[in-house]
Amino acid sequence: MHVSNRVLATALCTLTAFASAPTFAGVLTVAPTGANYTQIQAAVDAAASEDVILISPGSYTAVTIDGKSVTLLSTGAGNVTVLGTTTVKNLTATQRVILSGIRGFGSTTFLTGAGTGVGLFVSSNYGHVRVESCKFYGAIGWGDNTTGVGSVCCGMPLASAGRDGAYVLSNSQGVAFTACELQGGRAANALAACVCGNSLWGGDGLRVQSTLVSLYDCLALGGRGGDNGSEGGAGGAGCRTIAGTLPTGAFASGSTFRGANGGDAWDFLLPVTGGAGGTGMLVGPSTGVRLLGNTFSAGAGGISYFGNYPPGAPGTQLSGGGSIFTDPESRLVMTTDRFARAGTVVNVRIQGTPGQVIHLLVSRAPTFMILPSWRGTLVSLPGKGSVDVPVGAIPANGVLQTRYQVPPIPGGATSATVFMQAYRFDAVLGPKLAAGTTITLLH
């Protein structure tokens, strides 16, 4: 691979700027055996502000990060699996949380409060939250294959609804997702002996309320509606935005949103209805989305008495009473290493239209600004302590590969964090932002 000397030389100029950064921190390790801690929660509780928690593959219990700056970073081959909800809450404006390489599964529960059973719950934060290369799955609804609250006629309770893959609620600084998979859980099915009764809806892949989010190169899938005798439940949306007390909306680039199928209705004595299919992206009233290079698909309506009655209504690909703006531009994609030894070189890969001139913005602090004129969301803070590095033009094959030397860490520190984001530099067409990536530096 060709290495741009200009990029490496320019990167050396950043070392002094980063050497004075105040966010150097310690490192804690988590593994089933042979580490500082055997559970992620214990490491979070012990961590100081800005500490990095390196997690080896294994299964761990639910995690809550409450008012603390910390990075959760998976290492090694295999999955870091959290069995239970991963919760991030109550960050102050100067705190931030980074989740990188985590796979989480919400737990089925009879509780129905906000965030119960979801894979990821991000709530009541004034600080920044970054979710990168993660997978979160909502739980299956409570009471699967039971009679619900009935006997012959099975009315399924509220807890039987599928839970969201991720639910972000009341976050003033925004939440940034990059290269993530978010999937809603299916609703509970009624017992096959139930000749009547209604089932509930599947969970959304991502539910957004009183929060602005960005999604770069993500997959969001709704959960299937539940089956029952009289009426199947509706399929969940890939992504749903709901107005609240804070601005609500999303910017999405290069992502896929799929509504789920509705649940089936199987009785033959009554006119029965399969559940409605889910919407790929459902934009609620008084919310808005900006879209660039995404794919949307709708869920099918559930089957009604094995096809003897009309199926449930199909979902839609993209709909709702909110504001929807689709940018005709092609997307820009950047990938790089999630962590590196301080002072070494990381690989950077940028995919886009040949001829586009690319810069890297590298910063020691995050930000979150949806910028329509920049066709994206700025997540790497410009200004003091940041550098703008010209990389070059994307070649004819559409892929620009280069390397960047990350800064060293001063003596006494064991970790640090930098925030990198590529953008197109064009005086005529204007700038265009790729996904931002967090690079954790280790001593």
Task: Give a quick rundown of the structure.
The protein folds into 2 domains: about 30-325, Pectate Lyase C-like (3 Solenoid), CATH 2.160.20; about 335-440, S-adenosyl-L-methionine-dependent methyltransferases (Single Sheet).
Please, could you describe this protein's structure?
The chain is mainly β and about 450 residues long. It has two domains: about 30-325, Pectate Lyase C-like; about 335-440, Single Sheet (S-adenosyl-L-methionine-dependent methyltransferases). It is about 5% helix and about 40% strand. The radius of gyration is 23 Å and the shape is globular. Mean pLDDT is about 90; it is low at about 1-20.
Radius of gyration: 23 Å
Q: Classify the helix fraction into a percent range.
A: under 10%
Overall pLDDT confidence: 92
- Strand tally is 32
Remind me, CATH topology of the largest domain?
Answer: Pectate Lyase C-like
CATH class membership of the largest domain: Mainly Beta
Gap from first CA to last CA: 26 Å
The proportion of residues in beta strands is 35-45%
Q: What is the domain total for the residues?
A: 2
Largest sheet: 22 strands, parallel
